[in-house]
Amino acid sequence: MSITEKNRLLDTLNNIQTDRPAVISPGGMMDAVVTDTLVKSGIEFPKVHADPALIEDLALAVHHSTGFENFGLPFCMTIEAEVLGSEINYGNSICVPKITMEPFKSVEEVNFLSVKNAVLEGRVPALASAIKSLAKNNRDIPVVATITGPISLAMSLVDPQSFLKELYRKPKAAHSVLDYASEFLEAYVHVLAENGATVIAIADPSATGEILGARLFREYALPQLNRVTEAARRAGLPVIIHICGNVNAIKPIFPELKAEAISLDSVVSLRQLKQEYPALKLMGNVSTYLLEFGQASKVSTATRNLVEEKIEIISPACGLSISTPLTNIQALTTAVKNPN
Amino acid sequence: MIAENKALLQGISDAVLGMEEDKVVTLVEQAIKAKIEPLVTIESLTDGIERAGKLFVEEEYFVPELLLCSDAMYAGLELVRPYLDRSVDNSIGKVVIGVIEGDTHDIGKNLVKILLDTAGFEIIDLGRDVPPKNFVDTAIENKAQFIALSTLMTTTMGSMEEVVKLLKDHDSNRQIKVIIGGGPISQGFADRIGAQGYAANAVEAARLFKRLSNN
To answer: Is the pLDDT of residue B88 over 70?
Structure first.
């Protein structure tokens, strides 16, 4: 009997040998929604973002049209910030929702809301409902729920420049805000797990080594990422963490991350990283520039190289442009699933 | 220059590098009292930022450090600016800068702005989520030499190409140069869309702008 897509992903994350790498696109800022799929399915941005039936339909459409072996939800990085007070612009037919204004100018000004209440608000119920339906009706396909990581969430609440300076100037208050972000994310993860998510992906683009460096990553990002990871673990779910950019400064800290796998950007050589840290399970990292502008044959080659390098989970390097040709994405997934 | 003043100026550069805003203020006040030429004092402030930029490239300083260094530098700059000779135009060029439409990530753009300001450029900052037309209109209205575009998202790169296209229609003398940067951006992409320059980070951007304004 052949392995299901769900079991392949779960086995990979749980260190059980599988027939080949899984190939997924996690959702959040790394969703695989492209214009071709929107047009074919008749689903529109921005209407989809608050409608559970449309979220479910789009997740299904993406899965079928791209060949990715998962459902990736949601289609933005703003659900958490919205319920914690950030002003959101829902975007338009080609632009995903974004934060228009961080509500607080300083870590000392943050208004701590009740996280128990916050997870019942905004678009959380719609997302939870879509996840529930997808999980129930597609038992062989993993639902990857992507959440915004604690550093990025904090920087969606507090003016980013102030926040970064306050990591030095106001460490106590900065820690409090990050604790609050993680507290919310723990509750959020619990809701997503309860509704049938298979895997939690934590996308924390602002926690990149390029911005923080090793010292600040260790002091601020590491404990919070592990805290949220442990919450997912308690709910029975494995975790993938995505970190953007050049990771030279922080890769020595990677073995201390408790997540099952680490997803990385195209600027990182996964082959080299695997040599340096063979115990890490890696995900990535087909260039999104290649996917948008390159030929399908080059996408296939790049993908096959990753498979040969024994990268555990194959995925795009980061967020796909909405104008990425579907044929290129299909070249990626086909190169993993049907390499001949 | 007397030894005392030399030490003072070195101290200013060190204090900028050390992110010590209060110390910078104290030392700049002393420099003003000692009647050191304002431009010389400013040079030591920018020297501190340039040293910080070097540490940034070497991955010893990161974004928080660079932001704190620039706070320290600006604290000193604000004290000494009133003493500058207003009749001399010290600006070496005018730059319209912003984050392209659809994107709100602006830390990188702000770092570039700081370093360009330090290098002597006059900056018109349009902020974030800026429509292509605004860049072109502002640059032409203000007779700028450069448009500087930033984005962190692959999904918004197309708007950079639109700026270049719009500029072609309105700036037939090709006076205005478009420089681009950001996470997903590359020299290849810059060449593809006809931009005049690409820089991989804020420090490289400042160097590139200085080179281009000398030509």
So the answer is: no
Task: Give the tokens for residue A170.
Answer: 């106001």
Nearest partner of B74 among B105, B52, B104, B54, judged by Cα: B52
Look at the block and give the residue holding tokens 């289609």: A75
> Which residues, at least 6 apart from A120, have a Cβ–Cβ distance to it below 8 Å?
none
CB contact (8 A) between residue B155 and residue A100: no
Residue B157 CA to residue B190 CA, distance in Å, equals: 10
Domains along chain B?
3-83 (1.10.1240.10), 94-214 (3.40.50.280)
This complex has an ipTM of: 0.89
Nearest CA in chain A to B60: A213
Q: Would an 8 Å CB–CB cutoff place A98 in contact with chain B?
A: yes
Q: Do A99 and B104 touch (CB under 8 A)?
A: yes
Domain ranges of chain A: 5-335
CB atoms A319 and B154 under 8 Å: yes
Nearest to A164 among B64, B129, B192 (CB): B64
The answer to whether residue A177 scores a pLDDT higher than 90 is yes
Token look-up 């000779």 returns B85
The CATH fold assigned to A5-335 is TIM Barrel (3.20.20)
**Percent of residues, chain B, with pLDDT higher than 70:** 98
Beta bridge mates, A285: A315
What sign results for the dihedral spanned by CA atoms A50, A52, A53, A57?
A: positive
Coil, strand, or helix at residue B195? coil
Contacts of A205-208 with CB under 8 Å at 24 or more apart are A205/A29, A205/A149, A205/A152, A205/A242, A205/A243, A205/A244, A205/A245, A206/A149, A206/A151, A206/A152, A206/A155, A206/A160, A207/A149, A207/A150, A207/A151, A207/A152, A207/A243, A208/A243, A208/A244, A208/A245, A208/A246, A208/A247, A208/A250
3-state SS assignment for residue B42? helix
Respond yes or no on whether the N-terminal peptide bond of residue A74 is cis (omega within 30° of 0): yes
Buried b (16+ CB within 10 A) or exposed e, A54-76: bbbbbbbbbbebbbbbbbbbbbb
- Rounded to the nearest 10 degrees, the angle between the axes of helix A222-234 and helix A150-157 is 110
**What is the C-alpha to C-alpha distance for residues A71 and A192, in angstroms, rounded to an integer?**
13
Residue B155 has pLDDT above 80, yes or no: no
Query: What would the mean pLDDT of A244-270 be, rounded to a whole number?
Result: 96
d(CA B97, CA B178): 10
What is the pTM (predicted TM-score) of this model? Answer: 0.91
Which residue blocks in chain B are alpha helix, DSSP H?
Answer: 3-17, 21-33, 38-57, 63-80, 107-119, 132-141, 157-170, 187-193, 202-214
Q: How far apart, in whole angstroms, are the C-alpha atoms of residue A157 and residue A108?
A: 12
The DSSP line for A21-63 is: -EE---BTTB----HHHHHHHT--TTGGGG-HHHHHHHHHHHH
User: Tell me, what's the pLDDT at B36?
Assistant: 95
